[in-house]
Amino acid sequence: HDALQHCLFSSLFSQNFISLKGNIASGKTTCLEYFRKTNNIEVLTEPISKWRNVRGHNPLALMYQNPERWGLTLQTYVQLTMLEQHQAPICAPFKMIERSLFSAKYIFVENLYRSGNMPEVDYVVLTEWFDWITTNIHIPIDLIVYLQTSPETCYERLRLRCREEEKVIPLEYLESIHQLYEDWLINRSIPLPAPVLVIPADHDLQKMLLQYEEHRDRILAAGC
Ligand code: DCP
C-alpha cells in the first residue's frame, strides 16, 4: 500500500525528467548504465530493439539501405516509440531517457530532409504529426544532458562496436548529425525544451565515469 501511495505521489507531484543526447555512438549507453545504479533515477533506454524488429520487420536496416524509401517508415515508428518513452509511468523521482521526441525530429528527420534523402511530402507529414503531438500532449523535460563528442570519435566507436545495420554509415553522416546537435544545443538555432548541461565525451571510459560522478549532483538538481 505504501509503495503504491509513493508511486502515485511521485508520479503526480515531484518527478524530474532528464533527456540524454549525443551523436550515434557517443556513449549514451554507458552514461545510462552509470545512472541506472544511482538511487532515485529510473532509466529508460532508447527502444532500438523495437526499431530493429517490429513484428519481424527491421525498419532501421531498411532506412540505412534506402533512406529515401524507408526514412518515413523508420521515423514514424521512432516518433511513436519515443512518445511511449515520454509517457511511460515510473515511480522514481527522476526519469532519464535516451534521446527524445525532439531530437528524433530536429536531428534525424531534419538530417534526412536536408541531405535530400527524404521527399518533402514525407517531411511535411512527419512535421504535422510532431506539431500535433507537441501541441496537444505534455512532454515534460527538465534537463538535457548533451554528451559532446567529435564525429571522429563516434566513427571510431561505431567501427569498434560493429552493429550490422550501421556498417554503411560514413563519417560525413556523423558530421551532419553532429552539426545539427551543435546548432540546436549550443548555438540554440531552435527553441530548447529545457536547459542544457554539456559533458565533453571524447574521453576514455575511466574519465567519463569520473565526469558522471562529478556531474551527478547537478543532474539530480534538475527541475528543483
Ligand atoms: N536513429 C535514427 N533515427 C532516430 C534515432 C536513432 O536513425 N530518430 C538510429 C541511429 C543509430 C541507431 O538508431 O544507428 C541507434 O542510435 P543511437 O546512437 O542513439 O543509440 P546507441 O545505442 O548507438 O547510442 P550510444 O552508442 O551513444 O550508446
Could you explain how this protein is built, in words?
The protein is of the alpha/beta class and 224 residues long. It has a single domain (2-220), classed as P-loop containing nucleotide triphosphate hydrolases (Rossmann fold), CATH 3.40.50.300. Helices cover 57% and strands 12% of the residues. A 5-stranded parallel sheet has the order 2-3-1-4-5, sandwiched between helices. α6 crosses α9 and α8 packs across α9. The protein starts with a helix and ends with a helix. The mean pLDDT is 92. The structure holds 2'-deoxycytidine-5'-triphosphate (DCP). 2'-deoxycytidine-5'-triphosphate binds at residues 22, 24-29, 46, 48, 60, 63, 78, 99, 104, 108, 166.
Structure in a nutshell:
With 224 residues, the protein is α/β, with parallel strands linked by helices.
Fold topology:
Layout: H1 2-12, E1 16-22, H2 28-36, E2 41-44, H3 48-52, H4 59-65, H5 67-87, E3 94-98, H6 101-114, H7 120-136, E4 143-148, H8 151-161, H9 171-186, E5 196-200, H10 205-220
Parallel strand pairs: 1-3, 1-4, 2-3, 4-5
Helix pairs in contact: 2-10, 4-5, 5-6, 5-7, 6-7, 6-9, 8-9
The protein binds 2'-deoxycytidine-5'-triphosphate.
